Amino acid sequence: MIFPFVVAIARYYIVVYDVNEKRVTKVHKILRAYLQWRQRSVFEGYLESNEVAELKRKLNTVINEEEDSILFYSLPSDKVIRSFHLGKPPDEFDNVI
């Protein structure tokens, strides 16, 4: 018998958060385990669907849904993004996870 396998396709995510100061360190640490830190409260990188589910579950244990906000922007890849900045350029990083 042949068992079909599922190929997980990663999508590119930009995640931004606005959380109470008491929870910033915990949220930052969780996000840093999955994504690249871009600047302040911005992270980005590739995630598979199971990683997104795990990340959301972990973040939900830390945040207060009445006070905190975390936004996930999902894109098919990092090739569809055109970005620019003003002021001090962000630090360079690899998209290697």
Question: What's the structural blueprint in terms of helices and strands?
Answer:
Blueprint: E1 11-18, H1 21-32, E2 36-39, E3 42-47, H2 49-60, E4 69-75
Antiparallel strand pairs: 1-3, 1-4, 2-3
Features:
26% strand, 97 residues, 4 strands, single chain, Alpha-Beta Plaits, four-stranded antiparallel β-sheet, alpha+beta, flat
Question: Mind explaining what this structure looks like?
Answer:
- The chain is an alpha+beta fold.
- It has a domain at 11-69: 2-Layer Sandwich (Alpha-Beta Plaits).
- It contains 2 helices and 4 strands; from the N terminus they run βαββαβ.
- The protein has helices spanning 21-32, 49-60; strands at residues 11-18, 36-39, 42-47, 69-75.
- A 4-stranded antiparallel beta sheet has the order 2-3-1-4.
- The longest helix has 12 residues, at 21-32.
- The radius of gyration is 15 Å and the shape is flat.
- The termini are far apart.
Question: Uncertain segments of ≥5 residues (pLDDT<50)?
Answer: none
| Second rung of CATH, namely the architecture of one domain | 2-Layer Sandwich
Helix-strand makeup class: alpha+beta
Q: Could you name the CATH class of one domain?
A: Alpha Beta
Question: What is the multimeric organization of the chains shown?
Answer: single chain
Order of helices and strands: EHEEHE
Query: What fold name stands as the CATH topology of one domain?
Result: Alpha-Beta Plaits
Number of H- or I-type helical stretches: 2
What spatial order of strands do you see in the largest sheet?
A: 2-3-1-4
Number of strands: 4
Q: N- to C-terminal separation?
A: 35 Å
Report the major sheet: 4 strands, antiparallel
Proportion of strand residues: 25-35%
Give the helix proportion (percent range): 10-25%
Roughly how many Å is the radius of gyration?
A: 15 Å
Global geometry: flat
Mean pLDDT: 85
